[in-house]
Amino acid sequence: MNSVVRTARAPNLPHRRALTLPSLPAWLAAGQWLVTLLLCAFLIVPVVMSILAGLTVNYFQGVASGLTLRWLGQVWTQYHASVFLSLEVALATLAITLVTGVPAGYVLARSQTRLSRIVEEFLVLPIALPGLASALALLVVYGGFTMFRTSVMFIIAGHVVFTLPFMVRAVAAVCASSRLRTLEEGAASLGAGFFTRFVTIVLPNVRPGIVAGALAVVTLSIGEFNLTWMLHTPETKTLPVGLADTYASLRIEIGSAYTILFFIMTMPLLVAMQWLGVDATGQRSIRKKTRASAAPTNPPDQP
After folding, report:
1. Does residue 174 sit in the same domain as residue 205?
2. pLDDT digits 0-9 by tens, 63-110
3. CA–CA separation, 82 vs 80, rounded Å?
4. Which residues cross the membrane (predicted)?
5. Dihedral, CA atoms, 87, 89, 91, 95, nearest 10 degrees?
6. In terms of residue numbers, what domain contains 52?
7. Which residues contact 253 (CB under 8 A, 6 or more apart)?
8. Are residues 167 and 51 in the same domain?
C-alpha cells in the first residue's frame, strides 16, 4: 500500500535540473572581455577626468565646485593663433606629401630592384629615430639659413620628413595589388600612355591608400611635439607646444581646457578614418573591395 502511494506521488515532485558549468571557450571569451574592458577603462578614464578638469571651476574641489567654460575661453583667447598655425602646417605638410608621396609610393611598389628597397628604408628611417634627433639633424644642416630657420617653412620641412613615410607606405600597399597591374596592362594594350594610365587608372584605384595616408599625415602633423618643440620659435608656436606651455603654467584647469581643444581637433580625423574604413596602410579597404568583387552574384531567374 505504501509503495503504491509513493509511486502515485512521485510524478508530482519537482524535477531538479542538473547544473552545467560554462565551457572552457566561454571562460576564455569572458576573460578576454574582462581584460579588454579593464584596458579601455585604464585608457579612457584619465581622458575623461582631464576633460572634466577643464570644465570645472576648481579642479581640487571637483565637479562640486561647478562647471564653467571660462578656461576654454581663456585658452582660445591666448592660443587661437597656435590653432590656426597648426592647421596651416598640417595642410601644407599634406600638400607636399601628396605631391611627393603618391608618385614615390607608386614607383617603389612597381620597382623590384635593390636600390628601391634601399630608398624605401631611408624613407622609413625618420620614424625609427626620435623626433629630437631628426630636428637636431635639420638644425645642423639648415640652421645657418636665418630666414628659413625662423619661418614656419622650417617646421613644415620637419613635418614632411616625419610624415612622408606614412603616405608612401599607404600608397605603395595599394599599388602593389595585382589587380591594379592588370588594369594598367589592359589600358597600355589599348594604346594609353603612362600619364593617361596614371590619371585614369592608378589614381582612382589607389584612392583608399591616399585617403588613409592623408588622414594619418594630418593627424600626426597636428599632434607632433618632439620635433616641433625643437624647431619652433616664439612666433611659430604650434598646438602641442602651446599645450606644453599651459601645463608649465601650473594651472591644471587651463592645461585640461587646452586638452579639450586638442581633442576637438583630432577626434574628427580619427572618426573619419574609422568611418571611411581605412587604416594606416589602406589594407582594410583593399580587403573589402576584394571580398565585394569575389562575392558570387545571383544569376537572374530563368523563365
Report:
1. yes
2. 777 888 888 888 888 888 888 898 899 999 999 999 999 988 888 888
3. 5
4. 33-60, 81-102, 122-145, 152-174, 210-231, 257-278
5. 180
6. 36-68
7. 53, 54, 56, 58, 59, 71
8. no
